[in-house]
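This is your field. Have a critical look at both lines of this record:
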Amino acid sequence: HLLALADGTPLPVQLTAALLRCLSDDGLLKDESSPELYRLRGELRRLHQSCMRKVKDYALQYNMLAYLQDEFMTLSSDRYVLPLKANFKGRMQGIIHDWSQTGETCYFEPMFLVEINNRLQELKREEREEERKVLQYLRSLLEAELPGAQAALELLAQLDLLQAKRRLATLFDGRCLSLTPVAEGIQLLDARHPLLLLNRVKNADTSAADSTQDKKAAARAAAAVKPLDIVLRPGERALIITGGNAGGKTVCLKTLGLIAAMTLSGLPVPVGAGSHLPWFSRMDAFIGDEQSLADNVSTFTAQIEHLAKAWKHLDASGVVLLDEFGAGTDPAQGAALAQAVLDELLDKHTFVLAATHFPALKSYALTREGARAASMLFDPQSKKPLFRLAYDQVGASQALDVAREHGLPESIVRRAEHYLLQDGQDATALLSRLNDLAAKREEELAVLRQEQDKTRAAARHEREKLEKERLRLHDEVRSKASELMRAWKEGRATHKQALKEMSRLRASLVPADAADQNGSVLPSPEHFVIGQQVFHTVFNKRGVVTDVDERRGRVRLDMNGVNLWAEMKALRLHGSQGTPQSLGRPSSILA
């Protein structure tokens, strides 16, 4: 893709060569841009050196060092001047060009510098004229190769963008997310909030993201941001998230929204392997307090107005994020309105993520087809949030625990508990029990995942070990087969001896009980007849019976022109299934 991008339009070869010759790293014209510019700047440097020398000689001759504020010459109004102390200004003939801000220094041009400064101005005017000619020449080259220059600019911009994406992916170990059909739902595994993750990484001082040390620091910072599994299975369109305050419900909504926006922008995102998203044509987020005194709208009114404007655009390719929708009015009416909105969105097949504290929506999530319930877990002992999602259950709001945790007087919290018991609406004990069971299940699942990873690693190690052994055996068999062929060609062994040795070599590749091991796969013949097709389990080859020796329990086989005696117990009826494959390559070598 990069090569196609670079080869798309011819690059400006002449312009590039001219810019490299004429422009320095700081963007200024080089002396070598033209012969005349080289001459003029050389003369300017010589004039400067001559001027410095004359000023030094003049100061020493007339003992002027005591009069000068600084022993060095400077520039004022683009002319060489001397920084003279103000109380000595009348002791020499010359021109005062300027004063310092304190008034203690005047910039004085003595008469012997006037002619030099005049010549300096002439040279600088000629230098500016020559620089203008060089720039006009470069402009003519740019006009001649303008499409190529624009293509080069686009190429550099694309490379800069790709490099930025690569560094972003390195910062939080991101990956490019695959977009799947809408019917496959949403699956974000180990998803982390991109901004939280970047903030942690930045605090870990990972500016040079290519170094190994900074990658380790980025990994440690990423581990501090809790991952979430956001999953809507095929056929499900609404995920309704419940749980305690400050438990991470809004972060869950924003994580999906940001990851979807980044994916549609072609950016890597912090998710685990196996994640995928549908193609969203639009996203509508209703998060935060949108009240405005200037527009004369409340929080509830602003939510309704925004939803009404977006409603006609919502379809099966959109996603809606609802954070506490309907919470700014009467709880019963707000919950009923939220359920109605969710019903209509499900009828439109629009994806929805909603965070809520309404009890009615909790039961709605468990019973409505196409909706899925999820709860943000909290620690059973400390009552602190675990920032993990437990699916197919609802959670308590934990408002009183949060109030107690954040310093509200205990007397207020106890009175709130008393009023809650009086109302008979306290389901906290039941929901807390469900939370405890879900937290325990999550811990068990984490242990099982670790065991699964260990088992997979061990299986991968065994496969690699077996592959190395197979390659070693392959090389050994190839070497021995080549040696037998050389011996036969050189006359050191007869054709019969070579075949016998090859048969012995083949037999040594399979354990003595291999025939018994394979006996359950292909049926054993009850008797052998000439012309019968059989399968030789040791050689992994098919053959035709040409002779039968019942007394010795063997038959003579013709296997593609190779005739040999084979033990009856090593033969099976020819079949298409269960054919051993482990020794296929060595057998083909010896064949």
